[in-house]
Amino acid sequence: MEKWDYTELSKNAKDFGGPEKFVEFIENSSRQKGRGDMLPWIGVTALGTSLLTLGVIKIRSIIKAQKSKNDEQIETIKEELIEGIKEYEANYQELEIGSEVSGREISQY
Asked: Comparing C-alpha atoms, which of 32, 33, 6, 30 is closest to residue 19?
């Protein structure tokens, strides 16, 4: 624990108009110094928060663009699949019709 020189403290307190005013002055001075010490950290925090916000916005836009691209690819694949099924059904019906005709022709002989 620090040893206080009460003679010096008493003289300073008397110069400030009493111990209460002296302690209040020390407290206010310390608060002002503390505020000044905090300003760089407030700036760093504000800058960091801004950069983080911009990063999140950029990431979200990238994800949305990727999702949109994926949705387009899915639609293209679905259309190709539907077309393939329709072509298969058309060809299958032609084969079915062709085999029925061949079966009739064979049975006639």
From this structure: 6
Strands (E) in 1-109, as ranges, are none
Contact present, 13 and 22 (Cβ < 8 Å): yes
Identify the pLDDT of residue 6: 78
pLDDT confidence bin for 75, thresholds 50/70/90: very high
Q: Which residue has the tokens 């020390």?
A: 26
Q: Are 66 and 59 in contact, with CB atoms under 8 Å apart?
A: no
d(CA 35, CA 28): 10
Residue 67 near residue 59 (C-beta atoms within 8 A): no
Compute the average pLDDT of residues 11-20: 86
pTM of the model: 0.44
